[in-house]
Specification:
Blueprint: H1 5-8, H2 16-19, H3 34-53, H4 55-66, H5 70-86, H6 88-98, H7 100-118, H8 124-153, H9 158-187, H10 189-200, H11 202-208, H12 215-232, H13 240-245, H14 251-274, H15 280-310, H16 320-349, H17 353-358, H18 361-380, H19 387-404, H20 411-424, H21 431-439, H22 444-473, H23 477-514
Helix pairs in contact: 3-8, 3-9, 3-11, 4-5, 4-9, 4-16, 5-8, 5-22, 6-7, 6-8, 6-15, 6-22, 7-8, 7-10, 7-11, 8-9, 8-22, 9-10, 9-18, 14-15, 16-22, 16-23, 18-20, 19-20, 19-23, 21-22, 22-23
Domain Major facilitator superfamily (MFS) profile: 37-502
Organism: Pomatorhinus ruficollis
Main location: membrane
């Protein structure tokens, strides 16, 4: 199952010059404040992803309150989950301009506002706007920075760090399911959402902990990474030279942009020095002009990086494996979300509510999901193991469980399948690692934004589709079969593209020989 760099078909340049420079490592890379970033990301996953995994409880309350169809009601949960991920590319723009810390704090306020406003919902359509859109956008503004910051602060233990931080989803699903059940029973679903909104304000604290690394620290991380990957030879790893050769990064336009920006600021400083003898009012005007100029430069640089990543000559979409990764993401996430939203209904349909009340199936997924993320992260960090192969194996296991779940009609059978779903879905902790291996730390925010956007589209249409199929057939079986089949198509794309990448250099050399 081991795949070398050559297996993926990437050309790794000579970075001996880079390795020859002795670099003193930053103590915050793989240690120090990096673990505070992991803790912050952990609580973000509890409060956002964990809460979304527990929405099956509120979904049942909304069905009773508003007397709407399952398909329509499921749109509330799907909008929240989907928009959280779909806004990823646009959140990448915010991160480029404002940084992860400010983006996360603003997102925490929006998320809390969405929960609180939803407590006053008069109908399902009101929830679409307050909970689906408002809380969803706020969640996205916190979630993406939480993932990106962990990727920036870790080099040697990236998979483990992402695994530990994303276990918050499992803990959150378990804790929030119990909390929302209790709050709905004791206070009703409206007060439960109001209280949950107050709890969500803690996301602002998590955002405040996201202290940014300096550009110098990020450059040091690139050098350390290129040296360590020489020894580990992971499947999709790369260096800065590799990405440039594949057309993903373009440094020249960026250098020109920085030069132009420095000239603007330099001219402002020259005017300010020349005007020191002027009046206080003119000095205040110059300082204001300088502040506006600096803000304009920051916005221009952030937008230029964001635009070049998506639409410029250095587009991320020139990387074919990355494109295959996006296609996979379009089909994958719904297969994980559908069980969380509809399992409570399936349990009631099979008359298994008594056993499920003792130990809910969604809680089984959540608990085993925790161990899956940590264990898969530890395995992927081993020198002799390919992260790419662990990722693919976990995907095959999950799609098999999704296709098998409708065949189980006893509590024990459903519990076993749910446990396997929980463990294999631990590959979510590897997604940022695989994405960073494809595009590099510098473009991680934009690239991972695209990936979770594709996941969001999957989450947006998955549960309503399952509810719509149920309304027609009065069974959830076909929902799982169709979702599993589409998921398998996405996995096939992941398998095909590395083979194409590997064959291309050989075809090129054959053509040259004929000439």
């Amino acid at each position: 199952m081991y795949a070398s760099r050559e297996d993926i078909g990437y050309d790794f340049g000579d970075d001996s010059k880079v390795r020859s420079k002795p670099i003193k490592p930053n103590p915050n890379i793989d240690g120090g404040w990096a673990w505070m970033i992991v803790l912050s990301s952990f609580f973000v996953h509890i409060l956002i992803m964990g809460s979304q995994m527990a929405l099956g409880i509120l979904n049942m309350e909304w069905l009773e309150e508003f007397n709407q169809s399952r398909g329509l009601t499921a749109w509330v949960s799907s909008l929240s989950m989907g928009i959280t991920l779909i806004v990823g590319p646009f959140i990448g723009l915010f991160i480029s301009m404002c940084g992860c810390r400010m983006t996360a704090i603003i997102g925490g306020i929006l998320n809390a506002l969405g929960w609180i406003l939803s407590a006053y919902a008069a109908n399902v359509h009101y929830l679409f706007l307050t909970f689906g859109v408002t809380a969803g956008i706020g969640s996205g503004m916190v979630y993406l920075p939480a993932v990106v910051m962990v990727g920036q602060y870790f080099q040697k233990r990236r998979a483990l760090a992402q695994g530990l931080s994303t276990t918050g989803t499992g803990f959150g699903a378990f804790l929030m399911t119990a909390l929302l059940k209790y709050l709905c029973t004791e206070f009703g679903w409206r007060n439960a959402m109001f209280i949950q909104g107050a709890i969500s304000l803690n996301l602002c604290v998590c955002g405040a902990l996201m202290r940014p690394l300096s550009p110098k620290d990020l450059r040091e991380k690139y050098v350390v990474r290129s040296d360590s990957e020489e020894n580990r030879a992971k499947a999709l790893s790369h260096s800065a030279e590799t990405i440039k050769s594949n057309g993903v990064l373009g440094e020249e336009p960026e250098k020109k942009e920085e030069t132009a920006n420095e000239e603007v600021l330099g001219s402002v400083q020259h005017i300010e020095i020349g005007g020191k003898s002027g009046s206080g009012r003119s000095m205040y005007g110059l300082r204001l002009f300088k502040t506006v100029s600096q803000l304009t430069v920051t916005v221009r640089k952030g937008f230029a990086l964001w635009y070049s990543s998506y639409f410029g000559a250095a587009s991320l979409f020139t990387n074919r494996v990355f494109v295959a990764f996006v296609i996979w993401a379009l089909f994958a996430y719904s297969s994980f979300v559908i069980p969380f939203i509809h399992l409570p209904e399936i349990v009631k349909q099979y008359n298994l509510s008594r056993q499920d009340n003792v130990f809910p199936l969604t809680s089984i997924i959540a608990i085993v999901h925790i161990f899956g993320k940590v264990i898969l992260g530890i395995i992927s960090d081993l020198p002799c193991i390919s992260t790419w192969n662990v990722f693919l194996l976990a995907n095959f296991t999950l799609v098999t469980c999704i296709l098998t779940l409708p065949l189980m009609q006893t509590y024990v059978g459903l519990a076993v399948v749910c446990a396997l779903i929980g463990f294999s879905s631990g590959y979510f902790s590897l997604m940022p690692v695989v994405t960073e291996d494809l595009v590099g730390t510098k473009h991680l925010a934009n690239a991972y934004g695209i990936i979770i956007c594709a996941n969001g589209i999957s989450a947006l249409f998955g549960p309503p589709f399952a509810g719509w199929i149920y309304d027609i057939t009065q069974k959830y079986d076909f929902s799982f079969y169709i979702a599993g089949s589409l998921y398998m198509v996405g996995i096939i794309f992941l398998l095909i593209q590395p083979c194409i990448q590997k064959k291309q250099p050989r075809e090129k050399s054959t053509e040259e020989a004929q000439v």
